[in-house]
Amino acid sequence: MRTIALDGPSGAGKSTVAKLVAKQLGIHYVDTGAMYRTLGWYLLQEGVCLSDEAAVEDALSSVSATIQFSGGVQRMYIAGQDVTDLLRAQDVGEAASKIAVYPCVRDKLLGLQRELAVRYDVIMDGRDIGTAVLPDAGVKIYLTASVEERARRRYQELCDKGETGFSQEAIQEEIASRDYRDTHRAIAPLRQAEDAVMVDSTQLTVQEVVDRICTLAGGKVS
User: Fold this and answer.
1) Was 93 annotated as part of a binding site?
2) What stretch of H or E contains 57?
3) At the N or C end, where does the chain have fewer CB atoms within 10 A?
4) Is residue 218 marked as binding?
């Protein structure tokens, strides 16, 4: 199977790039973040205290999360319910962030993530895919960009959505703080795998990044 591990810091454009690479190569894009949000959604519905690791582990011990691909789109199921369209709420994202630090949560999803890589040709993005989830991936990419550029992109994205009440400087500070947390967390910290190829997108267009990764993966570029 073809497996591409795509890691990198927040705001580097991993999801956007991964989706386009998947489309260009005709493989599946696996959104690992949606997996954590699925568990977060379930715990919120069950009223579990997210700061209680033991309670979280107990609540998740008897429930299964699964993935199906429909028309190339990932659909998330938990306890047999399709929750894909319920995962973008802010409280669900916050719940996912809180529980992602627990070993029991990461262990529960690790098997599912690895199973997908066995069953399908995939590109999977995250912060520890090449180092922890798929250490034997055929292609490993570390996608990054300068903090300043990532802040600029995020600022422009929010402006395009008509959102106000923020500054590019504040966004840059938050991204820098997120980088520190991700690289210093106790479990599977963000780092470039020794055999990963770094792609710095600071001066590149999205398509240039996609073409570079497709070339590294042995696929055709547009």
Assistant:
1) no
2) helix 53-60
3) C
4) no
pLDDT in tens, 89-147: 878 888 988 898 899 999 999 999 999 999 999 999 988 999 999 999 999 999 999 99
Residue 7 lies in a domain: yes
Residue 95 in marked binding region: no
11 annotated among ligand-binding-site residues: yes
Write out the E strands in the chain.
3-7, 28-31, 65-70, 73-78, 81-82, 122-126, 139-144, 197-200
Q: For residue 43, what are the domain limits? A: 31-120
Determine contact, residues 122/30, Cβ cutoff 8 Å. Answer: yes
- Beta-bridge partners for 93: none
Q: In what order do the strands lie in the sheet with 28-31?
A: 28-31, 122-126, 3-7, 139-144, 197-200
DSSP 8-state secondary structure symbol assigned to residue 8: -
Same domain for 208 and 128, yes or no, is yes
Query: Is residue 61 marked as binding?
Result: no
Report residue 121: phi and psi, to 5°.
-80, 125
Structure-block tokens of residue 179: 């980088």
Confirm or deny that 189 is annotated as ligand binding.
no
